Amino acid sequence: MASLLDTGCERNICPLRLCKNAIISPVKAELFAANGSPIRIVGATRLFFEIQGMPLHADVFVTEEIDEMIFGYEFLVQNNCIWTFGQRQIMINGQPVPLHNRQSKTSVRRIYVREPIVIPSDTSVNVPVRMPFVNLHTVESDWITESKPVRPGLLAARTLLSHDDNHAAISFVNVSGVDQSLRQGFALGVATSCPPDLVRPFMDARHGLAMQSAGEDIDTPTAETVDGGRDVHESVSDESDTQVKCASIHNSSEMPPTAITPRSK
Questions:
Q1: Residue 95 three-state SS
Q2: Residue 60 — very low, low, confident or very high, per pLDDT cuts 50/70/90?
């Protein structure tokens, strides 16, 4: 498993998904990302592992808000590390270990279902999600997800999400004809950083669509922004177009049932 070496991080950090079977002790400590965002800590534990056959251990903070293992300054000091940048290697307790560069991932965040949930058939439901930071240098930004089929007949909508994921949710539509369940931690792909100059057009487009549904006019440029730059008239039917019937989609007015709670008949 690849891990990140970060001299700017004082402590070692491990995502909860990598140490769920470990004994995690409560700890009173504060952790912040480089942009000042607070990182909630689940607890602390000691991990035992090997690097090139060399047995090692590290005391780590455990969190659900970071998605990769980070060895910080604490690990480098405890293991007498010498980082030779020109040779792209690090000496750990006198043993050379090669390092590998990788493309920065600070502009993406993985998306996971926050809690088990059932999406009833022919229903639109907002599914709570969480978006852990890839590392402590994740940029502060709004984040956007793309529409995609998660399963046959289960579709996730394109959604704009804020940097704080405490109340983040993605709209799902279930047209499969059967109830669909998503387990906690189910991976939904990634969200990408949304530049500030794109946030306003996105919000204007959503507002414009709401006005159109109320019977008001909408400017063509705004509609083109929603449709990825295509001519708006391509997606608007007139009386001469062939009409196709589809199942009715109901917007759930209440919180959807969880996967562990039986649905009422």
A1: strand
A2: very high
3-state secondary structure of 27: coil
Statement: residue 150 has pLDDT above 80 = yes
| Lookup result for tokens 């592992």 | 49
- Provide the token pair at 262: 């039986």
Q: What are phi and psi of 143, to 5 degrees?
A: -130, 145
Per-residue pLDDT at 105: 61
Helices (H), 11-125: 73-78
Per-domain residue ranges for the chain?
A: 4-98, 108-195
> What average pLDDT is seen over the chain?
76
183 DSSP assignment: -
CA angle 60, 65, 70 (to 5 degrees): 40
For residue 203, the surrounding DSSP H or E stretch is helix 196-213
Quickly tell me which residue has 């390092």 as its tokens.
99
CA-wise closest residue to 131 among 183, 170, 172: 170
Structure confidence by residue, pLDDT tens digits, 172-222: 999 999 999 999 989 898 888 876 655 555 555 554 544 444 444 434 333
Residues 136-151: b if buried by 16+ CB within 10 A, e if exposed:
bbbeebbbbbeeeebe
CATH class of the domain at 4-98: mainly beta
Q: State how far the Cα of 219 lies from the Cα of 209, in Å rounded to an integer.
A: 10
Which residues make Cβ contacts (< 8 Å) with residue 66, sequence separation at least 6?
A: 13, 15, 39, 132, 133, 134, 135, 136
Q: How many C-beta atoms surround the C-beta of residue 127 within 10 A?
A: 22
Lowest-confidence segment of 24-33, 45-54, 252-261 by average pLDDT = 252-261
